User: What shape does this take?
Amino acid sequence: MQALESAMSGLKKGRPLVFNSMAATLLIICLAATGCALIKLKKENAEVLASTVLVGRISTAFPGKGPIIVAAYTMNQGKREVVHFTVLHDLGEYELMVAKGTYYVFAYWDKNSNLIYDDGEPAGQYGDPKKVFAPAGGVVGEINIAIPEKAQKIDVPSGFEISSVKPDKLYSRLAGAIIDLDDKLFSEENGSKGYWEGTSFFKAFGGNIYFLEEYDPQKIPILFIHGAAGTPKGWKYFVDNIDRTRFQPWFFYYPSGARIQSMSYLLLWKLQNLQAKYHFDQLYISAHSMGGLVARSFIVDHSALFPYVTLFVSLATPWGGAGMAEYGVKQSPAVVPCWIDMQPESAFIQSLYRTKMPETVSFYMFYGHRGSRNPFRSNNDRTIAFSSLLDRRAQSEAKMNYAFNEDHASIICSKAVLEQFNAIINTFEAKNGGYLSIHFSYGHTFKGERPDPGLILQPIGKNGAEMAIRLSANDNGRILGPFPPGDYLATVGALTAIGHSLPVTIENNEARELKYVLTPDHVITGTIISDLQSKDWAAGMPYHENFTIQSIALSGSGIHRKLDLLDGEDVNLLEYLIPRTDCYYKGNFIFYGLPLGEFELIIRAQGYKPFVKKCFIKTGKPLIPIIAELTPE
Assistant: This one.
């Protein structure tokens, strides 16, 4: 136990030891010898594999005061029990982690911040209410709740207590929450907790993007991403010495011990919601150590959905993984989840290079060469081997690779490094582009929330990646861009609203106006999961299909349809989504253009019992995605 405390003390003093060979070996031995720590880590891992993350958005048409509380609860012998709750400082996105099961979700303005739903506090609930089924693993989305201006009866009595524990401060987990870098939320203890106890960290603090000041449209945002066991506070030297009249620092604070791909997925969710709110047209990213892997995963996997990153600077990032992570996975009785991804030959490391970063992103690499010269160990920066820091796959895409007489930790506290960083950001200019002014209206009335539309841009007559931009239902007239010049097909539509496509030529520094009318469409959509889901499918991870679908059919109200079953990485989903063609791909299915009425959905998969469900489409009834859980034969 004393050895473990010594190792942890080194971590708290700022010496990275996650991938240092001696420290990692010591910690593995200590974990094996320390029953309480081993049991705790195993419990954390079991919990994250048995849980899912519920996500949605809270909306209302009126301003309110006080925090918004969003809670998931279950019924136990007739009593409501809250399993997780979160706090928002404004309307917007939320995340809740829950174990496999069924839950109700509701939200209210907590005017007096007492964590009690008091009489007269505006509230809303999902459905009327509607149970939410949470599988083991992944994300369940679109659990959206509207809080009406006038009081309405919900299925939660006034006086209901969310938590008997009353913290000194309710920290908002809504992207854009303003905080001070010296706040105790960013303590070294919490950074360590995020690494060794990622599930507990997420339940206590979530994963979020924090601001130091109100958003300023005249300043370019720089998103700083910490590494393993880090916190935003580690970036203080940089933040204190950049031009704050030109730049606004943002911070992604996340449980660094979690699976890395799940954190890049969370980053996408947070940035999409920030962009929909503030409409910024460029973002710089600076990332230290493992944070660089989070950033590259985000850019490579999601640039089509978030094309606003123009500059990326990595510092001391292990581009080729870490051999000690592989050793830890093989030898330790309990494994920190990110070790799985950090193995040099892991599927995650390979995924970082399956495609190059977009041409619109300028990438710079920084690394330190002041490391150990132990003859029994590869040259390193005292933590990461040079062979990983200088992985040729990453180097080949960097505009410049800068070396400094720093080690893995000191590189983010170095005057020389800061001067070069400032030289880059102060002189960087994004490539030219043009803009689109999007006007849309809804050609129908409906009950509840208007569906959020999206813009899809497809290049015509040239090679180029499609872009998909999420819009808000209130974004009519918004100017989007910049986009690379050229000819495009611009489509605006929503999941439950039909739009259309228009050709457009985008020119440098010019804005083109496009107009759309959205008409209603009834759809049935959902996700298929399995009782035998992969052990890699932890809470928050993107969907992972591990079964073979034979057929998906929908019958009723005069129709009978079977879905096209799409397979393979080369599928272009836009060829189906834009013309609204029924399809299935990687566990997700959708039927478009349905009439009102009753339907029977039948899903057949190899080795599983048929999944049969009655579905109803009624006027004014909101769309609720189906979660179809397959049961083995």
Observations:
- The longest strand covers residues 79-88.
- Residues 1-22 have pLDDT under 50 and may be disordered.
- DSSP finds 15 helices and 35 strands in the chain.
